[in-house]
Amino acid sequence: MGNILNQIGIENYIFLSVVLFCIGIFGVLYRRNAIIVFMSIEIMLNAVNLLFVAFSTYHQDAQGQVFVFFSMAVAAAEVAVGLAILVSIFRNIGSISIDNLKNLKG
Amino acid sequence: MNVSTILIILLIGAFATYFSGDKLASKVALLFSLVALGCSIVLLNNYSTGENISVINSWITQPKISFALNADGLGLAMVLLTAALTPIIIFSSFGNEYKNAKAFYGLILFMSFAMTGTFLASDGLLYYIFWELALIPIYFIALIWGNGDAEERRKAVVKFFIYTLAGSLFMLTAFIYLYQKAGSFLIEDLYKLDLSACEQLWIFLAFFLAYAIKIPIIPFHTWQANVYQKAPTVGTMLLSGIMLKMGLYSVIRWQLPIAPLAAKEYMDIFIVLGIAGVIYGSIVALRQKDLKKLLAYSSLAHVGLIAAGSYTLTLDGLRGAVMQMIAHGFVVVGLFFAAEVIFRRFETREIEAMGGIRTQSPKFTSMFLILVLASVALPSTFNFVGEFTVLYSLSQVNIWFAILGGTTIILGAYYMLRMFQHVMLGETNSKTFADVTLNEGISFAVIIAVLLFFGFYPKPITDLITPSLETILQVINKN
Amino acid sequence: MDTNLALILVLTPLLGFLVNVFFGKSLGKTVSGAIGTVAVAISFVVSLLLFNQITSTGKGIEVTLFDWIQISNLKINLGFLLDQLSVLWLLFVTGIGSLIHLYSISYMHDDENMHKFFAYLNLFVFFMITLVIGSNLLVLFIGWEGVGLCSYLLIGFWHKNQDYNDAAKKAFIMNRIGDLGLLIGMFIIGTMFSTLDYATLKTVIAGATNLNLPLLSLAALCLFIGACGKSAQIPLYTWLPDAMAGPTPVSALIHAATMVTAGIFMVTRLNFVFDLATDVQTVIAVIGAITSLVAATIGLVQNDIKKVLAYSTVSQLGLMFLALGFGAYEVAVFHVITHAFFKACLFLGSGSVIHGLHGEQDMRNMGGLRKAMPITFWTMLISSLAISGVPFFSGFFSKDEILLTAFHHSIPLYVVGSVASIMTAFYMFRLMFLTFFKEFRGTEEQKHHLHESGALITIPLIILAILATFGGLISLPGNSWLNEYLAPLFAKATEGEHHLGTTEYTLMGVAVLGGLLGILIAYIKYFKQDNVPEADENITGLSKVLYNKYYVDEVYDAVFVAPVNSLSKFFRDYIETGLSALVFGLGKIANEIAFQGKKLQTGSIGLYLFVFVLGLCAIVSYIFLAQ
């Protein structure tokens, strides 16, 4: 089995990953809906995962893929908790716009 | 049998007291404190026959911390002071009713445990843990069972807590730095360190902050008078009788030998601070309206002299300081107890509201007068032996130190006799003053007996502490 | 044997004290008084035994009990030294002490706290004996402070009166100023010679070459300050007149015969130190002379019978220091002894008068007591003659020797001393005429109750009067037993008996004439012209200044006491609050920072995220740019 990287260069993965990450960042910064912010964070996470996997192959080292599994598992748990919090917030204040969430004001 | 026994007894005592219920608590506490006293006397006996009563066990390997308790003459003297004063303090509280007594007496024993640990610990971190541990019980004792306006009291006690804690953190920093250098917290290893003069100065100052606040040396004394006034008398006795001595003891045990160069270099400054405390404390004491506050300032004056004696770095200075610590421990406990005895009858601590007690209770007057006289270091009391030795050592450094420090015998007599006159003498008070009870009398008699006995025959104590002080001096003078 | 004897000597009064403290009340007044008296009498008997032993062997007895205080370079024993000087002092301390105890049984009989009075007196005798027989300076210091304590207790014996308590406190504190001097003196001596023991000190000093004389002089000066406090010399004398607040036997025992002579004892004891400090000796002589004159002038116009005697005591003590200053220790000791006799007698006599008049002390309200109280009158008259230096009474010999010594060393000081002596004669007879002659000026009721005191009061008076008459025999000019007795004590040979030549006889004559002159003036003024001193508000001019004791108390108040008190107020109100505010200030600063910092927390999640991203960019770009 030939290395896929010979066909599609590593730099493409990096570009894709950066683009995805920036999309995630912009999503986090511009959108006010908490669910969308959440999804944006997931995109950022996955951008990094992609990079991990790419470099894992590049270096011929399985460790990177192991990390991805870890981070996916953690992300899954995080999503579960995060969504639960959002549901609970929505039940309490009837909105999930982050502009309305000012309880952290000092 | 080694010194950890006494710690175990006190710790078990603290819990046993707590679980014995409110009614029995005071008696159980007294019992355990007496057992601890007996144990410390046995230990003293073992020590004098040459038996090894020290303990050293590895506790945490990384970082290397040992459970090391070293009992030499100095440590034992302080342990004995604690062990002797604790039963007296507990016994003196027998005339009072306390809410939640089981916690109250449990905390007293716990504090005694922590202070004993401080005097024995020979591992820096263990020592630090005991040192801080002793702060917790007194915080609660003063806060919960104190007197006066609750809000004011909270303010004073919290200030005391944070202030002393803040000072101690500098000490912790110093210990961590020393650990980096020595790779161990054991006191022998710290003694062996070869630090540069600059390092020593910083270490010295860090220790000084912790101790100056605890002792207290002016200008770090502002917590003292208020806490003494607000705390219940038992707390005040624990604070002034034993806890202050933790600071003074630590100066001799930790600060001077670890940073001897700095100590020698800046000796004069610290002696002057101590003597300034003597004069300042005495003068402020003159115009106090509250009996406990007056005694607090008198305490400030006395510990100033003790600190000055320690910083002379002479055998006489150290020896006098230790003797004066013990003498002051007893006398100040006695004086605060006298204030408490008056409070039980008159419900006031205002000096102006007292007077004329002498006609009503000659017994109490005599005992109070003896304590007052001991406090002003009348010859034939133990305080005189200590004060004379300290002043003598000051005169060896500079005769002016002795003269200025010696003003304590004039000013001390002035404020104490003035207080005595307004509290005890004059026309018979309109309020009745019931004569001292048997329990109260016993507490006074024990204290007075100790003071008079060692006043004429201080040799046992001198013999006990001198070898270990000589060892410490050797460390100080090693270069 | 000697140890036992010494212990009996010291401990009997202590035992008396303890018995009276613990059981005095239940024993009843007479028994407790008897116990107190017997305790001191036993000590007196022991003193006699010791005296006998010393005169026969001529050697002092040293008793060491145990090590007391250890200091690196000096070791201090609790030990006693019974030699010529201490035994001499013991004799009159315990002797006069016993008499005064006896007297007090009757004098204090109406007081409810009589057992306490005897307890304190016994305690005083205990401490006084310790002071006298201590073998080193620190044991002396136990006694020194101890007698100060007893003085405090006894001056404030009637403790319901805060004025008396003030006087007691003042005495204690002024003594403590002196004590500090004594302590410092001890420190210097300890540092120089590594001992505080008299005997060792004497040998060391005698054998020492190239002594640090200035330092030694400083030590001597400090010691003298101590003596000033205890023996009421300028500037520390003002406590003694106030100390008359105590019961009269106390004034007689403590504030005339024994305790106040402790300073003289100490200087005599350390004569080998003072001999080397000639400058200090001059200071002592000058201060002694000035004190004697100042006190005598104040004594001229006092109207309180005890105050007159108090100032007279200060004045006589001044004369003793005058002699000490010239190194004439045996002369000073001689005057101490004769003074103890006649002054104790005078005080006890005045006590008898006060007792007879139920507490009246103002001489303006006395008069004509001669008939009612003959024994008191005659004994007091004898003592007054003695103190005035009328020939062949004891005071004549001792005072004359002092003036003679002064004349040989310094004419101005001799003049000062002589003037003081003339004044002494005047005010003593002013006292006598005002008290015992003419008509009684008190109330009718007092007159009705006038009576001679009982035997317990008159017997001590008579004994003391006899001693005051013949006490001078122990040191007759030209043939002095006392000088020979004390000779082993002094480092350098004493100047010996003054050769009795024309000068000496002339001086003696001058002194006698001076004394008689004083008496004559008093006679004219208060007997012939029948003057009675003015009421307080009518006193004007110089007399007013004198009557108010040169306003020294007021000056001390303004210069020392008031500033300390206002300093105390200042410290309490400003410095303490200031320091406290400083500590709280640190806490407040932290609080303030937190308060400002919390404004950053807007609570807007969008903003947080934005800053978060910015921070991320900043970190990333830092990592890349830094490379």
Automatic annotation (TrEMBL), chain A:
Q: Name one GO cellular component term.
A: NADH dehydrogenase complex
Q: What are its E.C. numbers?
A: 7.1.1.-
Q: What is its main location?
A: membrane
Catalytic activity, per the record? a quinone + NADH + 5 H(+)(in) = a quinol + NAD(+) + 4 H(+)(out)
From the record, give the transmembrane residue ranges: 12-30, 35-55, 67-90
Tell me the GO molecular function terms. Answer: NADH dehydrogenase (quinone) (non-electrogenic) activity; quinone binding
Q: Which UniProt keywords apply?
A: Cell membrane, Membrane, NAD, Oxidoreductase, Quinone, Translocase, Transmembrane, Transmembrane helix, Transport
Q: Where in the cell is it found?
A: Cell membrane; Membrane
Q: Does the keyword Oxidoreductase apply?
A: yes
Which InterPro entries does the record cross-reference, listed alphabetically?
Answer: NADH_UbQ_OxRdtase_chain4L/K, NUOK/Mnh_C1-like
Report any one BP term from Gene Ontology.
Answer: ATP synthesis coupled electron transport
Q: Would you say which domain of life the source belongs to? A: Bacteria
**Lipid bilayer topology:** Multi-pass membrane protein
Going by the record, the broad EC class of this enzyme is: translocase
Q: How does it assemble?
A: NDH-1 is composed of 14 different subunits. Subunits NuoA, H, J, K, L, M, N constitute the membrane sector of the complex.
The protein's matches in PANTHER family, at most eight in alphabetical order, are given as:
NADH-UBIQUINONE OXIDOREDUCTASE CHAIN 4L, NADH-UBIQUINONE OXIDOREDUCTASE SUBUNIT ND4L
| NCBIfam families on file | PRK05715.1-2, PRK05715.1-3, PRK05715.1-5
Function, in words: NDH-1 shuttles electrons from NADH, via FMN and iron-sulfur (Fe-S) centers, to quinones in the respiratory chain. The immediate electron acceptor for the enzyme in this species is believed to be a menaquinone. Couples the redox reaction to proton translocation (for every two electrons transferred, four hydrogen ions are translocated across the cytoplasmic membrane), and thus conserves the redox energy in a proton gradient. NDH-1 shuttles electrons from NADH, via FMN and iron-sulfur (Fe-S) centers, to quinones in the respiratory chain. The immediate electron acceptor for the enzyme in this species is believed to be ubiquinone. Couples the redox reaction to proton translocation (for every two electrons transferred, four hydrogen ions are translocated across the cytoplasmic membrane), and thus conserves the redox energy in a proton gradient.
Regarding protein family, the annotation reads: Belongs to the complex I subunit 4L family.
* Protein name (database record): NADH-quinone oxidoreductase subunit K
Native source organism of the sequence: Flavobacterium potami
TrEMBL record, chain B:
Q: What processes does the entry annotate via GO biological process terms?
A: ATP synthesis coupled electron transport; electron transport coupled proton transport
Q: Which residues cross the membrane?
A: 6-21, 28-47, 67-91, 103-122, 128-148, 160-180, 200-222, 234-254, 266-287, 294-313, 325-343, 364-385, 397-417, 438-457
Keywords assigned by UniProt, alphabetized: Membrane, Transmembrane, Transmembrane helix
Q: What is this protein called?
A: NADH dehydrogenase subunit M
Respond yes or no to whether keyword Cell cycle is given for this record: no
Q: Return the similarity comment.
A: Belongs to the complex I subunit 4 family.
From the broadest rank down, the organism's phylogenetic lineage runs: Bacteria, Pseudomonadati, Bacteroidota, Flavobacteriia, Flavobacteriales
Q: Does the keyword Protein transport apply?
A: no
Localization per record: Endomembrane system; Membrane
UniProtKB/TrEMBL annotation, chain C:
Say yes or no: keyword Disulfide bond present.
no
GO molecular-function term, one example from the UniProt record: NADH dehydrogenase (ubiquinone) activity
| Residue stretches making up the NADH-Ubiquinone oxidoreductase (complex I) chain 5 N-terminal domain | 68-118
Query: Topology in the membrane?
Result: Multi-pass membrane protein
Database matches in Gene3D superfamilies: 1.20.5.2700
Question: Where does the sequence pass through the membrane?
Answer: 6-23, 30-51, 87-105, 117-135, 141-159, 180-199, 211-229, 250-268, 280-301, 308-326, 332-354, 375-393, 413-433, 454-476, 505-524, 605-625
InterPro entries named among the record's database cross-references: NADHpl_OxRdtase_5_subgr (IPR018393), ND/Mrp_TM (IPR001750), NU5C-like (IPR003945), Proton_antipo_N (IPR001516)
* Keyword terms: Membrane, Transmembrane, Transmembrane helix
For the NADH:quinone oxidoreductase/Mrp antiporter transmembrane domain, which residue ranges apply?
A: 135-424
Q: Which domain of life is it from?
A: Bacteria
One of its GO biological process terms is: electron transport coupled proton transport
Record bears the keyword Nucleotide-binding: no
Query: What is this protein identified as?
Result: NADH dehydrogenase subunit L
Q: According to its UniProt record, where is this protein located?
A: Endomembrane system; Membrane
